[in-house]
Structures are given as structure tokens and as C-alpha cells.
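Worked example

This section walks through a single chain of length 113. The input is the sequence exactly as stored; nothing has been trimmed or padded.
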Amino acid sequence: MLGAIRDSRRLNMVFTKRLRERVRRGRIRCSVRIWTRPHVKVGGRYPMDDGHIVVDSIDPITVRDITHDLARESGFESVDDLLHVAKHGRGKNIYLIRFHYLPPGAWDGPRWR
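Given that input, the structure is written out below as C-alpha cells.
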């Protein structure tokens, strides 16, 4: 699960330990977050381990949009599993965040589609 930790200098992306290796390998490229407001911005680069997470998109969604397929794409076994991890804090707004991982030393250029 994608989280945000604010220190006095910058915002960092945080994933539960069981997801980190699949994020680094590019197997997980999206996350569902329940926040009071977005904690990341499109195009933002956020440190994760030795590399960076680059946010490609942020879309508001509803709980009905969280399907079994989306839970699996996000690295979870089920919607219940995803929601169990995502539901913490005061947040009520649900966001689908799509991202990619940049390994250490990698440069990120324009993403042509």
C-alpha cells in the first residue's frame, strides 16, 4: 500500500513490506489510498529504498470502483485485504494512484504513449 510520511524536508512514499519487491520489479504499478486529500502530485518523484517512485496519475474513485481485479493489480489478495491495509487515519477520500519505479541511477524522461 502506498502511504505518505512527511518529515520536515519532504514527502516520502511508503509501501507495506510485502509489496516492496514487486513494486521494485514493476509488477505493482498502482495503489489505492484513502486520504483526507492527495499527499502526492502527478510527476512527483518520491524516494523508495534506493530508487524513486514517480507518480503518473491520481484519480478519485469510490469504494465501488475497488474490484477484485484492482485489488490484485495493487498487490493484494482481495478487496477486504486491500481495505484492511488502506483504512487508517481520518481519510474518507479514495484515490487510485498509478506510478512507476525508477531504480537507483535511472533517469526518467517523458512518458510517450
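What to look for: Residues 5-9 have pLDDT under 50 and may be disordered.
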